[in-house]
Amino acid sequence: MTDRAVAVVRAGALTTVQDLGRTGYAHLGVPRSGALDPGAVRLLNRLVGNVAGSEGAAVLETTVDGCALRPRCAVTVAVGGAPCPVRVDGRPAAWGTAVRVPAGSLLEVGAAVRGLRSYVAFGGGIAVEPVLGSRSTDLLSGLGPAPLAEDAVLPLGADTAVRTPVDAPPWPGPPEELVLRVRLGPRDDWFTTDALRTLATRAYRVSSASNRIGLRLEGPALDRARPGELASEGMVLGAVQVPPDGCPVVFLADHPTTGGYPVVGVVREADLGAVAQAVPGTPVRFVPVR
Length: 290
Known about the structure:
The protein has 290 residues and is mostly beta strands. The protein contains two helices and 20 strands. A seven-stranded mixed barrel has the order 12-19-16-17-14-13-20. Strands 7-6-9-4-1-11 form a six-stranded antiparallel sheet, with no helix packed on it. The longest helix has 10 residues, at 38-47. It is elongated and about 65 Å long. It starts with a strand and ends with a strand.
């Protein structure tokens, strides 16, 4: 085993390897997957020196309670996404900037103080074997590396040692309210006029049943204008599918590529990064756009 690796001491509730995802395989039933907050991944990779086409290098995505790691080599690390405490050998370390971690030291990424998902980038990136061009863990299909487990060892790529100055990283705080711009269709005609008005004017809340597959919402049901079900059809990232209970589900990175419930609209991809940090109970509003 190469010395350029990191050992898992504490895996956390759900920590996965993620990059910017695998594209071009939806026709084979393979979703994009990838980090729920790609903006955080790009920025963290810049901070640790993964530049010149490497801003999509694989990182770790933690959920709620962080993780603990022991690098086998000296490595530059940056932790971002959800704000959280960071410690190296028990001493406080900086969040949101590059930190040099000596070989054999214990890097502790603590529980999220606000938001849900923190990201850990390493100089050289996580170098697990790619599957269909991506190193991302896909929880729906099972492609990519398994979620982290204690005593696992993850290889690291070569550290370029190139640091990109970032004077003031634009870290957005976890949202007090999610505002999601949505383009109606292709099945908005399956819903009543009152239902479309409800979608545009009423507030929903993030359900605790949400995950990397979909953002499940609680709130007023959307009534259908017609009975029956659709034949399965293609689904895209950001699709707002409405199951029989009438409560919308926004499809995220690990979403299925087909589905039979009508899609009332599609959320703009630029708005989905904030969803990564929306804790249960966060208010959600949809804003129809053309």
